[in-house]
Design a protein that fits this description.
This protein has 158 residues and is α+β, with helices and mostly antiparallel strands. It folds into two domains: 76 residues, Ubiquitin-like (UB roll) (Roll); 69 residues, DNA polymerase, domain 1 (Orthogonal Bundle), CATH 1.10.150.120. A five-stranded mixed β-sheet has the order 2-1-5-3-4, sandwiched between helices. β1 and β2 form a beta hairpin. It starts with a strand and ends with a helix.
Length: 158
């Protein structure tokens, strides 16, 4: 099977790679581009650990083919902080102990950022609904919800 040349933008930077047509975006990110922040939890789109945004749409990268990234813009966890300065969501996850083993954390952060870009004043119910596609076996979710709500307040300047 021949490899396809893909040109895309990842976290604001132009990127080119070669991949076979049946390789997932998750595998391209991790194995071809050494961007290992995005995690594989289930490989079937059920856990959200591999969440990225593709042209602003939240997707499970295990369900997207690498060739589908052609001409698109991708945001991953690697692009969330600004150098050494953590994104407010990352800070709030740390402050509220909203992580334990860390496998699900990048997906939760990407999904939460996607929510807050659309709705900077979500209710607890809206946060829970938006993050329902992300599974965690360690934290019990309450600290994650609190961290997202606190981040939203700070981002609004409330």
């Amino acid at each position: 099977m021949s490899k396809h040349h893909v040109t895309t933008v990842i976290n604001g930077d132009p990127v080119e790679f070669l991949c076979q047509p049946n390789v997932s975006l998750l595998d391209v990110l991790r194995d071809e581009l050494n961007m290992t922040g995005t995690k594989e939890g289930c490989g079937t789109g059920d856990c959200g650990a591999c969440s990225v945004t593709l042209d602003g749409r939240l997707v499970c990268s295990c369900l997207v083919l690498g060739v589908e990234a052609q001409g698109k813009s991708i945001q991953t966890i690697e692009g969330m902080a600004n150098g050494e300065t953590l994104h407010v969501l990352q800070r709030k996850f740390l402050e509220h102990a909203a992580l334990q083993c860390g496998i699900c954390t990048p997906g939760f952060l990407i999904a939460a950022r996607s929510l807050l870009e659309r709705n900077n004043n979500p209710t607890e119910e809206e946060v829970r609904f938006w993050l329902a596609g992300n599974l965690c076996r360690c934290t019990g979710y309450n600290n994650i919800i609190t961290a997202v709500l606190e981040a939203a307040r700070e981002m609004r300047g409330a």
